[in-house]
Fold:
Amino acid sequence: MQGLCILKSESVTPFLTITTKDGDLRISTEQGIHPEKIDKGCLIIDYWGTKGYYVLTFDRSGSDARFWTRDFLGVEAVPDSAFLTNAYAKMAVSFIAEQKPEEDTPPWETCNTARQALDYFDERERFDLGDFEKEVLKEPDMVERFQQHRSRMEEEQGQPLETSFEISKKDVTKARKRINATLKLDTGVEIHVKSTLSTENDPILERGYDDRKGMKFIKVYLRFFSTLLLAALCLNAKTGLAQDSELKSTLESAYKRWSTAVESKNATAWAAAITMYRQVTTRNLIVSQGGAFPKAVFETSISPAEISKLRLLEAQAVGETAHLLYFGKVNVGGDMEDIPDNLLMLKFLQDKGAWKFDSNKIIHLRTRPDLLEKLKQGAAPDFLDLPEFTPPGKAPAIPAICGVPQHISGGTIQSIGYETDVTINGFDYYVRDNVLKVFVIGGLNNGANQISLKAKKIEVPKGSDRALELDLFTKPSKTGANGQRVFHYEYNGSGEPASSRSTWELSMPATKELSIIATE
Structure:
């Protein structure tokens, strides 16, 4: 069988050519088309000649441009069951999306209407336009608007669509994934509704009116995945539902490079395998504790987790962030008989155009025995859409490299009922409704050390006490001795501390503690 290939590219790429002349090598620059830069293409096959030959088209943009398929190639789609099912299913979804419901009609009800239209395709082996209009559209005005919509679609396709054909079930499934709705509120909030919402037995979204505020409201019910203990192993550290096998392979290869470097204690390979953000963060923390970098990276009893025996639940990438989520006995060094089943999240970042390993998280399931049992039995996870199981999309900024500390220091930030940002010599520490123990990055230096604090009140249970304190200590001179507290801040007011009075200068070495008690 013979064929003819036509390619279209709108950009050229420079490349080098090497030639010889009189025994010398010559390098020159040429312009050409890189295979990865081809925008559009088609393959014309010597088949079906009586109907104009069989043509396979390609468009990097994801959908064939009209000028390419119709104006230039002059081709028409083969009207088989797959094409017609896909065309009518897309048409039904887009038609319903175009309809302007009454102002009070929530978008999930429109979403449900689209789903009901596709139920027609699921329940039958053959499509009949008249039957579809009678059973799904029902109202004469809806039928008339749909006929107008179909005429516009046929004009865009460049060919009429048959009104009766065998239904391709797999193309109906693809169409269902396009059903969605977005509710945009005048308060700046958007609610994105998935197609599966309309199949829920119990209502997840409820509408109402608050007489006190004089505003409408929408109540969202969550199957909240209860508080999880996140044990970060950032420093030294299949029968699943992987969404993207290529992404899975790429991320697992990146993790393998990192784990091999750690196991072989190869500092050069470790630096090449881990993100620059984690390199700098790890280095700063080690140096701030008086350790030797990179030697201290490998001075640990913790081993990289072995993932080959774990069940992969998800491989997901969002923007420049990605993760792999596993379930099973996460072994980071120890007796396998004593290791419980938990979740392991491997996090990755885009670093100079390539995925690199960044950090681990073990998510303990001891407080969720019901979920643990379901996962043990091989059930599909129903919590992957929660924020804590979705990559954030944006990689964190690479921090500055700190100097070797003149006074190794640590601190405690107590922020109960507050969202607090503390900055010490340019390095930031964030805590929300918790108590955080930190090493001061870069330590405290001889002379002036800049300290600032910003705190914002957050909701707390009725009757609970708020607390906002910051304490800094220097490392004791010998084992067993107590460190010297050199800074203490305590807020006893009922509101929020004034930012104009929340910046201090701590002079080191300190002869006495700098203590601040604030009221308002």
